[in-house]
Amino acid sequence: MDAKNIQCEISDGVAVVTVNRPESLNALNSAVLAELECTLYGIEQDSTVKAVVLTGAGEKAFVAGADIKEMAAMTSFEGHRFAQKGQRLILFIEKMSKPVIAAVNGYALGGGLELALACDVIYASENAKFGFPEVTLGIIPGFGGTQNLTRLIGPNRAKELVFSGRIIPAAKGLDWGIANEVVPLSELKEKALGLAREMAKNGAIAVGYAKNAIVNGLNMTKEDGFRYESSLFGVLFATEDQKEGMGAFVEKRKAKFQGK
Ligand code: CAA
């Protein structure tokens, strides 16, 4: 597929994926959703990539939401299908075996905030803004936002944000636990890349299993989550990475993981 709205650069085991539609503040239309899904699918299959940074083009927006101009003419059926398409992308990111870091470089609204919430870590620039303005448009968040925001920050704060349609600054997003960290815009990309590279150095299977345990564990009882964790823990003892990681510790050298 010709991904004209998505840029993807891979180096040192890290893929930087940029939503590149700055004239519309990187709004997610059907083409962008399909291209993003296709790009991330390729990254998931690429064993040289160990971590992903997701960001938006320009200095104003990460993603300012789903494309309102495209949605304006949708029928009820098309709206439902559009939400399902977005949700499929969100769930794909959550199920990817590689960590995905959102570098939120401006507005993360509606579908843009939903995209950031699908990521494993959110680093934001000082000019970033978070919000769900959907109710000001007569709709509700449709790419998993009502579910994911509530799980992340709890129902009362989620309701305050979603029912008001209010847009909050990065500092409040940090205070509420939406952003992991807030840094000057000029430092954002390097900060996200630094974390991605740090993650990429570790045993890739272990990092993927840790993500799997945390993401899937959120939907389990604590006991099932414990059982799931110990199963994954056991499986890792069948990997070469476990032999290498523990062997390197015993031999007092740095581990060289192969992702096998
Ligand atoms: N969809 C389509 N186009 C958008 C867009 C969006 N979500 N957000 C911005 N744009 C376009 C604008 O229409 C404008 O295009 P034109 O120059 O052709 O008019 C261009 O991007 C620049 O935007 P503004 O001139 O509006 O920039 P601003 O600095 O004055 O305002 C903003 C910035 C506050 C983010 C404002 O653009 C805005 O409110 N955008 C919409 C935000 C929103 O409501 N997002 C939620 C969408 S619904 C959703 O996402 C549903 C879901 O859960 C799946």
UniProtKB/TrEMBL annotation:
CDD domains: crotonase-like (cd06558). InterPro entries: ClpP/crotonase-like_dom_sf (IPR029045), Enoyl-CoA_hyd/isom_CS (IPR018376), Enoyl-CoA_hydra/iso (IPR001753), Enoyl-CoA_hydra_C (IPR014748). Keywords: Lyase. PROSITE patterns: ENOYL_COA_HYDRATASE. Belongs to the enoyl-CoA hydratase/isomerase family. This is Enoyl-CoA hydratase.
